[in-house]
Amino acid sequence: QVQLVESGGGLVQPGGSLRLSCSASVSISSIYAMGWHRQAPGKQREMVATHVRGGETDLADSVKGRFTISRDNAKNTIYLQMDSLNPEDTAVYYCTATIITTKVSRYWGQGTQVTVSS
Length: 118
Hints:
The chain is mainly β. It has strands spanning 4-7, 10-12, 18-24, 33-39, 46-52, 57-59, 67-72, 77-82, 91-100, 104-108, 112-116. The protein contains no helices and 11 strands. The mean pLDDT is 95.
C-alpha cells in the first residue's frame, strides 16, 4: 500500500505560479511512475504530467511549456511546478503512483485544490 500526500494548492491570479508537492509513504525509487492528474468541475479527470523512473516525462499538450514535473528520490517526493496559470487550470490536482509487479497498481492522493482567478 502506498500513501500519497499532496500539498501546495491554493488560490492564484492568472499568470501566477504554484508548486505542488507529493510525498510518498514508500521509497519512490521503487515506483515505476509518478505523476499528476486533475479534475475540473463537470469534466473528466485527465492526465497532466508523468515522470517515469528512468527519467522520461510526459506532459499534456495543454500544459506543455508552462508546467514542469520533477522527482526527488531522496525525499520520496515529486513536484509539479506550474507557471503562467490560467483559469482553465482550475481543478483538483491528484498525485498518482504506478507500481508494476505481477500486476499494475495505481495509487491516488486525496487531491489538492488549485484555483486560478482574479
